[in-house]
Amino acid sequence: MAPTGVSPAPLRPRARSPPTASACSPRLCRRRPPTCLVAQCDALIDALNRRKAQLLARVNKEHEHKLKVVRDQISHCTVKLRQTTGLMEYCLEVIKENDPSGFLQISDALIRRVHLTEDQWGKGTLTPRMTTDFDLSLDNSPLLQSIHQLDFVQMKASSPVPATPILQLEECCTHNNSATLSWKQPPLSTVPAEGYILELDDGNGGQFREVYVGKETMCTVDGLHFNSTYNARVKAFNKTGVSQYSKTLVLQTSEGKALQQYPSERELRGV
């Protein structure tokens, strides 16, 4: 209980996050083994399907890129083919010219144009710009090895560990730089606890440390920092093991040390 005349600082219970489907707790597995196993297998399948979708998307992207390069080269070759066909038709018309002097006037220019066209065709126009092979491969041997090494462990009966203690908020309080915490076992608990472990952080959001180990269900922690926020939690243990942690409590110490009131000289004289 809080000391007389001093109001305890407000306590704010912090609820633990519920277990998610991706991280199934052992307690949940013991309650619903089939559902838990199916959820774990579905999670593996979903992860594999996501990787499959990423792989197919990459293959499709590479395929579209190759098609674009091939289409561009086809268009370029089509233009060159049309130009060459036009040149050939022009040459045939020139050959039909009956005037020798006119033929001699255009023959040199025509020969240069034919050689230029031939050189352009020989500068990689007919060389494929894109190979048919994909620059990627799938190495599934590590995944298959992991799947073959997957162990199926038979579920055991629930271990007789103590139930999670319950912090009694109405009896927990702070006074100056001290904190008093009280807890109890759940009313329907059938497994006795041999002791409890009370943990407190450093008042700055750091790691928890053990401040009490014993059979008592109430503990007062002295020597805390003034104007600091501490997180506290407790768990029970027996020969089999330890229970889950209780809900975390946030404790706020006083802003400063209370000054002791000394009697004045007049009061000492009884005046």
From TrEMBL:
Domain of life: Eukaryota
Biased composition (Low complexity): 17-26
Chain spans, region Disordered: 1-26
InterPro entries: Bbox_C, COS_domain, E3_ligase_FN3/SPRY, FN3_dom, FN3_sf, Ig-like_fold
Domain COS: 95-153
Keywords: Coiled coil
Alphabetical list of CDD domains matching this protein: FN3
A Pfam family per the record: fn3
Record-annotated Fibronectin type-III domain positions: 161-256
One CC-aspect GO term: cytoplasm
Annotated PANTHER family: E3 UBIQUITIN-PROTEIN LIGASE TRIM36-RELATED, E3 UBIQUITIN-PROTEIN LIGASE TRIM9
Protein name in the entry: Tripartite motif containing 9
Species: Rousettus aegyptiacus (Egyptian fruit bat)
